[in-house]
């Protein structure tokens, strides 16, 4: 059974749980880097927005005997009911019709240009080396975390704004709504290990050992979602480089974070490029991949460049 047939059967089961005032549709939605997901969307007359509930993970488990049509339908209904009572469906999307109402919630993120050629035809964007700056509208960060809507060309026409105006708003808003955070690799690794094995973790010894072996820093936002955009924050990279009194290698770990490595000498670059390729090919999902390139901040030139 392919995922289309699977989705149809799940839709039938979900339909049995709802009255005639609901419409259930199947969507194949394109995400970052040309990755597509299949999901169900349940809409009703009184609600002006409804999320697509993705079922790809359940489909993969179904093929292995780990899930059933019934359990997948139950997951869809549970998610729908949660959103209906207090999630994205409570947002008033009428505000989205006016730019004045959404301007303070416009933010940016970075995506790979080459892997998103088709998507970029339909959305406002600005090129940044081999990446593209694209824009989102945060729906309600206080209530919904990082829930957002990607801004398309049709929105830009509706609001009668230019991509330059979107950029200026996003440059101000992204720092405010998604403040940056820089931690040592030792601090991040300690957090991960302590979460997974708290009873066996010796924070002081491990932090000291890792600090000596990995002079690297992790840059993201505090939510650690699409934090690679922090590279765009005015004066952030230059300020950190001045603090380190070094030029910086900027390593694209994923769309969510960057690694900052104070540069001792330029010959390190070739080895780092090999590391980036290996990590991207083995550790990073296709949707979260940012770039195979290595970036470099030169203090003398005062700019980021691609090596």
Order of helices and strands: HEEEHHHEHEEHEHHEHHEHEEHEE
Output the strand order for the largest sheet: 8-9-11-10-12-13
Structural class: alpha+beta
Largest sheet: 6 strands, antiparallel
Number of domains: 3
- What is the overall pLDDT average? 86
The poorly predicted ranges are 141-145
| N-to-C CA distance | 46 Å
Helix content: 25-40%
Number of extended strands: 13
- Overall shape: it is globular
- How large, in whole angstroms, is the Cα Rg? 22 Å
**Percent range for β-strand residues:** 15-25%
The tally of helices reads 12
What does this structure look like?
There is one protein chain. With 307 residues, this protein is α+β, with helices and mostly antiparallel strands. It folds into three domains: 3-90; 94-173, no CATH class; 180-306, no CATH class. The protein is built from twelve helices and 13 strands. The strands form three sheets. Strands 8-9-11-10-12-13 form a six-stranded antiparallel sheet, sandwiched between helices. Helix 1 crosses helix 3. The radius of gyration is 22 Å and the shape is globular. 29% of the residues are buried.
Task: Please write out the topology.
Layout: H1 3-17, E1 22-30, E2 36-44, E3 52-54, H2 56-63, H3 69-86, H4 99-102, E4 106-112, H5 117-120, E5 125-128, E6 131-138, H6 141-144, E7 148-150, H7 153-159, H8 163-177, E8 180-184, H9 185-196, H10 203-213, E9 217-221, H11 236-244, E10 248-254, E11 257-262, H12 268-282, E12 295-298, E13 303-306
Antiparallel strand pairs: 1-2, 2-3, 4-6, 5-6, 6-7, 8-9, 9-11, 10-11, 10-12, 12-13
Helix pairs in contact: 1-3, 9-10
